[in-house]
Design goal:
- It is a single chain.
- By secondary structure, this protein is an alpha/beta fold.
- Helix content is 39%, strand content 13%.
- Strands 3-4-5-6-7-8-9 form a seven-stranded parallel beta sheet. It has a two-stranded antiparallel ribbon with strand order 1-2.
- Helix 7 links the parallel strand 6 and strand 7.
- Helix 3 packs across helix 4, helix 3 packs parallel to helix 11 and helix 7 packs parallel to helix 8.
Amino acid sequence: MWKRRNFLQSIAALTVAARSRQLPAVTAESVISRPIPSTGERIPVIGMGSWLTFDCADDRHALGIRTKVLGEFFTRGGALIDSSPMYGTSQQTIGHCLTALERPPGLFSAAKVWTRGRWLGERQMKKSARLWGITGFDLMQVHNMVDVKTHLETLREWKAASRVKYVGVTMSHRSLDEKELENLMRTGVLDFVQFTYNILNRQTEKRLLPLALERGIAVIANRPFQHSLLFDRVRGVPLPEWAAEFDCVNWAQFFLKFIVSHRAVTCAIPATSKVDHMIENMGAVVGRMPDPLMRKRMIRFYTRL
């Protein structure tokens, strides 16, 4: 399968103008953030996923690389890290990296409960906190809405007791009926929803994203690169010159800025195990964003490839 590294090495990915252009420096003021509607707290628009990429807690060499990846994430303005008990040893890896980095103060921790029953759910969430090496999570999500009624009842109690700050649910691409998620979004108990959204997979623009705006719910966009499919499609294709108009210098930023420029999206969570890819990804957290007309231009360009 064609990977991002391969095509970046095989083409002159930037125009002369883009190469000579310096992106804005990353400072606390320059990092683009969005408010969480239920509280107004702001988080950077680019976060970090950990599915597959951080499942390496038994590999010392890999742990060292993941620590560098996470270090770049925080250095470049990142905050939200998302994981799940479903993701193998990713939570243990995250805990190792956070310890090695001496607990970066900007962390926004987001985990999931993925089991059935109240007792098992509570035990799982407590174990996740121990693996991360933290006392509690900023956001706890019901993974793929498994036993969602039971876990949301528990999480409402935990939130009232300040054991968790925000409550959410997640939906994997095509894994569940969107109608079920819509019904939950109308209940008023959710601070966050998480689902797939990217330039190729835009079906959530029809109902879920508008509903999130209407109901005041934060949106985390997962699978921002549709695994590697988005990069496969631009193999050998140079970045269009007009991408410089929204401070975009690589395809990763092109895809990410498309996502987070949608006004309903709070944060996108690309996952990577490579330092250079993290640096590319985090370039999307600064600079100008595409406006609605530019977003249409991006869609036209990509869909014609």
